[in-house]
Design goal:
Blueprint: H1 4-40, H2 46-83, H3 86-92, H4 97-100, H5 102-138, E1 152-154, E2 157-165, E3 170-179, E4 185-196, E5 205-216, E6 230-241, H6 262-267, H7 278-307, H8 314-340, H9 346-370, H10 376-399
Helix pairs in contact: 1-2, 1-5, 2-5, 2-7, 5-7, 7-8, 7-9, 8-9, 8-10
């Protein structure tokens, strides 16, 4: 069972960790939701489709949000305890920084296991499901995108509708023109109409009421002075299936390396999917494993930055830490691209940056927990903090703003 010190440490990092994860996830999903609404707005059940697609994107964004939230939670939680002198009180009671880090190290292990499940299985399946929904949405008849007073075209059919009521799938005053090529054309006008869903039929029924129909049985030949004789008819109600039944089904999962689970990546290194190469499969496998193991390094990297020296400003330490983790993320992303193009081995492009980060984190963690000397990083961040403070003071002085010390 967790002891009092463990519960206290976890409580200090829980709030910033949960807040950072929630805010980060919401911001990522909100940005994607705007693009999805732009592509699906107007289609039938568009909001339900958008939220379904966003649900499939949650594992993708969790892969980024979890390590970022853990790192920020550690920085803010341990930084708060350091600023409040809680770490000094614990050390005076014989509880060192290494002992305080024990619960967060265990937390990072649990989160790395969760990341393994997300990267290894959840992301490939939800990525495929997301692409499947995109495929289905792209096959929806453009009739559902109709706007009042705007000409729309679907296949050989051009139409314009007025006074749309999407809640009832009805409209007023319709003009529909269908070009059948050598077989002529149809022009239909109707005073009102509606779409009727038929159970078991993938096509809705277009019902037109109080209309007229002008039909040409053949296409006029170039140079003819007269048009072929038309057929004119009136109708009270006319029903017709809208669009064509699409017999295409979405492809099976595994078209590229991003849709393969971790065991499937291992099995398909020598037999890659048709749209990828062995190098890309190998790079994807190594990149996912590097991302999982990177979670284990975060506590050892964040805690020394959070505690730091007594004279070292926390803002400067946090800034250096955030820049470091962002640069590392970009190095891993670019390393995956380089390894996927077979320009370098994954061990060089992915595992070497991970090894360097792990060694740096271990060195700083050892200095923070088991020595009293300040390392070069702590001195450099203190220097940056002093320079930034002096620059801010000079700027505020020029602007006539008062600064508080």
């Amino acid at each position: 069972m967790l002891k009092l010190i463990d519960r206290h440490v976890l409580k200090q990092i829980a709030t910033p960790l949960a807040g950072a994860m929630a805010i980060g996830l919401l911001m990522l999903l909100a940005e994607r939701m705007v693009r999805l609404l732009d592509n699906t707005l107007g289609k039938k059940n568009s909001f339900a489709v958008v939220f379904e697609m966003l649900a499939y994107l949650v594992p993708h964004y969790l892969g980024t949000a979890i390590p970022a939230a853990l790192f920020l939670g550690l920085l803010l939680g341990f930084g708060k305890m350091s600023n409040n002198s809680e770490t000094d009180a614990f050390m005076a009671a014989g509880i060192g920084l290494n002992r305080m880090a024990r619960p967060v190290i265990l937390l990072s292990v649990l989160l790395s296991v969760a990341s393994l499940a997300i990267f290894g299985w959840a992301q490939p399946y939800t990525r495929y499901a997301y692409r499947s929904v995109v495929f289905d949405v792209s096959k929806v008849d453009v009739f559902y995108l109709a706007q009042e007073g705007v000409f729309m075209q679907t296949g050989d059919r051009t139409f314009i509708l007025d006074e749309l009521d999407r809640s009832k799938n009805s409209f007023e005053r319709a003009f529909i023109y269908e070009d059948r090529g050598p077989e002529g054309s149809d022009t239909i006008t109707a005073s009102k109409g509606s779409l009727i869903e038929i159970a078991g039929d993938r096509r809705p029924i277009l019902r037109l009421e109080e209309g007229h129909r002008l039909t040409f049985k053949q296409k006029p030949s170039p140079g003819e002075a007269t048009l072929p004789p038309p057929e004119v008819a009136e109708f009270a109600i006319a029903d017709a299936p809208l669009g064509k039944v699409n017999k295409d089904i979405f492809r099976p999962r595994g078209d590229d390396q991003k849709e393969l689970t971790l065991p499937e990546l291992v099995q398909r290194i020598d037999t890659p999917p048709r749209k990828t190469t062995s190098a890309e499969v190998r790079a994807e496998l190594h990149k996912r494993l590097v991302n999982v193991f990177s979670m284990l390094v975060l506590p050892f990297l964040a805690i020394p930055f959070a505690v730091g020296g007594r004279r070292n400003r926390s803002s400067a330490r946090f800034g250096v830490a955030l820049v470091l983790i962002i640069v590392y993320h970009e190095v891993i992303e670019q390393g995956g691209v380089i390894a996927g193009k077979n320009l370098a081995s994954p061990w060089l492009a992915l595992w070497m940056p991970f090894g360097l980060l792990a060694a740096f984190a271990a060195w700083r963690y050892y200095n923070a927990c088991f020595t009293v000397k300040r390392d070069a990083v702590d001195k450099s961040s203190e220097w940056l903090g002093e320079k930034a403070s002096a620059l801010r003071g000079a700027l505020f002085g020029r602007l006539g703003w008062e600064t508080r010390t």
